[in-house]
Predict the 3D structure of the following.
Amino acid sequence: MKKYVSIIFALHLVSMNFFAWTNGELLVWMDSDRGYALAPAAKKFETELGIKVTIESPEKITDSFSIAARAGKGPDIAIWAHDKLGEWADGGLIAPLELSKEFLNRFCPKAWQAVLHDDWIWGYPISLETETLIYNKKLLEGSPPTTLSDLVSLNEQITKKHPEATAILWDYKSSYYSWGFWRVPVVTFLGRKAETTTCRTSA
């Protein structure tokens, strides 16, 4: 595997809310799909520090967090996509962090940009997500497409032979899901020119 990869990502944030603290316990809110992955780390945390960790996945977690935080309740740590960061920061639901340059330099600079708001850092990036091309070799003859425009003709070819199949499975009309494809060095979107970033990964 290459030690350098170009990434297009969405991050997750971890924000501390000290008003919810219960002595000797730590309450974490995150989505159920990723909650099980944190369980081993939570167990290690409990063993090493003697602090009980509880992971919960409330329904409509972002709405529940906003309501609970305003009432002085809720989790000690909330793990969610960074797109809620500005709203929570402006609403006074999370507090900014003061981190050393040494600590910041341990992570990809682009990761910190995602948790930057009003020149303050409001969370810890803990994961990266990137678009990946997955295709069925039984349905696709030859090499996969290299441009978005190729998908149109490819979709026509595939659906003609396999009516139950389609070449496009994401919600391409939504900028949330399509931004990764639009985000190329020559594109300017909403007045901000995109860049390609290379970050070192662990060996």
